[in-house]
Design brief:
Blueprint lengths: L6 E2 L9 E4 L2 E4 L7 H9 L2 E6 L17 H4 L3 E4 L8 H7 L9 H7 L1 H13 L3 E5 L6 H13 L3 H21 L12 H20 L3 H7 L4 H12 L10 H4 L6
Parallel strand pairs: 3-6, 4-5, 4-6
Antiparallel strand pairs: 1-2, 2-3
Helix pairs in contact: 5-10, 6-7, 7-8
Length: 253
Amino acid sequence: MVSVAQSGVRWDGAVNAWHIVGSVYRMGRREWLTEVGWQQMYDDGVRTVIDLRTLREQQPRDTDPQVSPEVTSRFEIVHCPTEDPDSEEFTELFGPYLKDPAHYADYLRIFPDKLAAVFQAIAAAPGGVVIHCAAGRDRSGIIAVMLQNLAGVDDEEIVRGYQQGMRGINERHRNHPAPHAHDGFLEDEALERMLASRTASLLEFVGHLDTAAFLADNSLSVEQVAALRAKLAAPAVPVQPKPAARRRRTLRN
């Protein structure tokens, strides 16, 4: 198995942003990025942003930074919702949203076509790719786990990546309360208990996961899988904090 530690990225305004593997990253909602953050993401080789949210989730918030259309126009933004929130089975099993790796196997079973479309989009994407959902935890998390599985990343690093996502959004909720009552900030002891439970569920899911078989069973061609593997093998641009003077410069065309 390959050991590839996920590392945090410092794009101004980004929440729960991590390098997954190859030239693929994950984060929370893209509307949190500032103009400087979009430029930093561009500097790090990202050219495609894949949004896993449903249309009803894509509304701006009053606290979002102002970003001009010229800044985002250099990126291909692809909408690939991973779920149908109106599905009765979805609501019965998960409640208002996916929030536990114990449900990942059912999620794959209920929405295979939607999840396969995300991998098709990654395979077809120019440049580096960022996948994002709302919190940057479970929807982007299940895609990250499947990408790592396809790339041969070992279980320890898969667990590390999931825990980073949980810790990252929990830290966000310390000073920025969640926009709903289902996912508030957890103090250390409660967070560690939840991490232990969800880590056990994650390892059970990973133990039965075969991403390559899933892709083959859901109509990804040999060429698409090869393109996806190439994306996962591509070296990421080294992510380093930008000097203050560079962060303030005018965005390039």
